[in-house]
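Reading a protein record of the kind used here takes only a little practice. To see the layout at work, look at the sequence and tokens printed below.
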Amino acid sequence: MSTRQTTLFDQAPAPWEADAAVERVVASVVIAKGPDQAYDYEIPEGFCDQDRPERQLTPGRRVRVPFGRGNREAVGYCVAIETRPVDPNTIKQVAQVLDSESLLAPAMLRLTRWMADYYLCPWGQVLEAVVPAGVRGKAGTREVKLLRIAEGVRPRLAELKLKSKQQQRALKILAESSHPLTSSSLAEAARCTTGPIRSLLKQGLIEASVTRMASAAEQDAATPREGPLPLNPAQQEALNKIVAALQTQEPRSLLLHGVTGSGKTEVYLQAIEQVRGFGRQTIVLVPEISLTPQTVRRFRARFDRVAVLHSHLSDVERHQHWMRIARGDGEVIVGARSAIFAPAPHLGLIVIDEEHESTFKQDAAPRYHARDVAWQRAVAEGIPLVLGSATPALESWQRTVEGTTTLLSLPHRVLDRPMPDVVTVDLRERGHSIGGRGAISRPLHQAMHAALCDQGQVILLLNRRGFSTHIQCPRCGMVVGCPHCEMALTFHRQLDRTICHLCDYEQSPPTTCPDCKSTSIRYGGLGTQKLEDEVRARFPQYVCARMDTDSTRAQGTRLSQRHPGWSRQCRYGASPE
């Protein structure tokens, strides 16, 4: 071997020369928490074995790679694989494949690339948002060591001379098994302890591999079955147009404009039944998580396999539903805006109920709108998108005017039921407040009294929680505000605290004005707590219940931190969906 030292006058071969490049299988990897670009890594031969698909690297799986000059370990997503000439001296290798199967299909990878470009967000951040944390962490699974007979041992099984009958029996059972066995199940089948199995491992006659298995299977709750309801002519016409769009196998956008109570949901259900007959899946988006349980019950009464996806599920539940959908077991996927990323392999229809709602817009990066993402996915899959609303968004209505969206109208309620009476009460008129001051006017009091006397129920809606919405000094006009965001603090009498509903800063209610030291502090504004007290005072013989985020929050609910610079975490923050 030559030991000549390279001098400054020696010329190193250029990296672009033909003899320096070698054909290699290269993976394009997007780092989950890194720069917004893809990096090339060589795939080792061990990750190209087609006989071991759980170890084979394919697009959509996560990998662990050396990143940067320090070769720190980083997790990324494989987004593409190709064979091309590379310089083996400069390209790094994939260190580990983290997933046994792809988390994202090629169509979903293209959708996330579009989201990254359209919403100006790093591709890795979009990928992290699309794949739930419970799926990435394999929640609800445990590592299991599976045993299989070593390669080349089965043909010479009869020639082997083992020390004990337990080893012979265990090896024979494993050789005859059609699938790998755990150590405990093999010991139970061979009627022995794990000692003979460990001996077989040491001799190299069997080999072990570690994989993850689900701890428990998720089951749907039993729901009484219901049949389809008869449709009126308007509903039938709308259903016919949706079915015609399904048969074209082309992306179509349809706006189902129907007044409240016109039977839009029944049209959805019968359209989904048509999709189910084609062996396809349907994604149904609802605006609020609070609407999801009743929607799921409605769909489970008509279909056997209904999966649910929203942010209030535990990581284990979300992972179980995600895997069911990926296997094609979920006929209908119901959820909030994040359900648009469900890994449905046979998607045939997307339905967005109450499409005008602002909750379909994500308020954290990537700041996507589920309606726009749904249309992009519908275009990629070649399927219809049905938007339903009694008050469509202006942009959706404009598309019907332009002709890019088909308008389906349900102008009347089911069975020609009358619309509810709506009465506007001008609270400036003196006659409405006669009989007592407060939030409940005389017409409202009379209507509530009539409904309660008829054994009915009353719902009062107020978009302000707390007792008093602001605290003001009548002498100098100062309003007690939040020192962080300058919002007026809301007084919560049950907690005896004033709280900012934006950043959750809280303090004790003042007894004197902080500016002029006047003692004449006035608590103004109306919140749900004050309204509850007034209802209890006016109707003491009836049960009154208040439902807001203060009264319905469960113990241990995960809260969000609104600003990293603030010292305390939010106690009253709302969940992301």
Observations:
- The chain has a mean pLDDT of 84.
- The first helix runs from residue 106 to 118.
- The first strand starts at residue 22 and ends at 31.
